[in-house]
Design the sequence.
């Protein structure tokens, strides 16, 4: 009798341990890509490679001791064929819209909020099915011109 109870408890414990293990294994299937926005107005990752339709997790962080009015970053990925120069120029004055020009919202396939120093965000992003090199930029005024750009390569 005592043995049976012990067996049941052991089984039960095994189940409790097994369930979270399964759950975490499943979420590990989403690749996490860590990107930092830096004071030199560059992303520390300038090439992201993904498979068509893949869901990736983007962890984006701004590293800075400056006030957010002076130094903040975002990531905005635009669709193929977008005039990136025009998008970046128009977005500079779109402060009330997280620096995303309303006229270009339909061209933006993914964007993070604008983050000041020490802020970070974790977001999932399902990349397009269409292969190609998608531009991503920071739309904080002046940063695109300073070279705060990168490529999302879907292949
Ligand atoms: Cu920036």
Sequence:
């Amino acid at each position: 009798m005592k043995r049976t109870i012990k067996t049941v408890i052991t089984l039960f414990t095994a189940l409790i341990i097994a369930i979270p293990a399964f759950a975490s294994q499943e979420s590990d299937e989403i690749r996490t890509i860590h990107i930092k926005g830096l004071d030199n107005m560059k992303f520390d990752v300038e090439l992201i490679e993904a498979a068509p339709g893949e869901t990736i997790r983007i962890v984006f962080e701004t590293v800075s001791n400056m006030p957010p009015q002076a130094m903040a970053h975002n990531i905005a990925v635009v669709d193929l064929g977008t005039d990136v120069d025009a998008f970046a120029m128009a977005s500079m004055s779109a402060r009330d819209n997280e620096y995303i020009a309303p006229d270009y919202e339909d061209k933006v396939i993914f964007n993070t909020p604008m983050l000041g120093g020490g802020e970070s965000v974790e977001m999932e992003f399902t990349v397009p099915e269409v292969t190609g090199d998608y531009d991503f930029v920071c739309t904080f005024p002046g940063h695109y011109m300073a070279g705060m750009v990168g490529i999302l390569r879907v292949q």
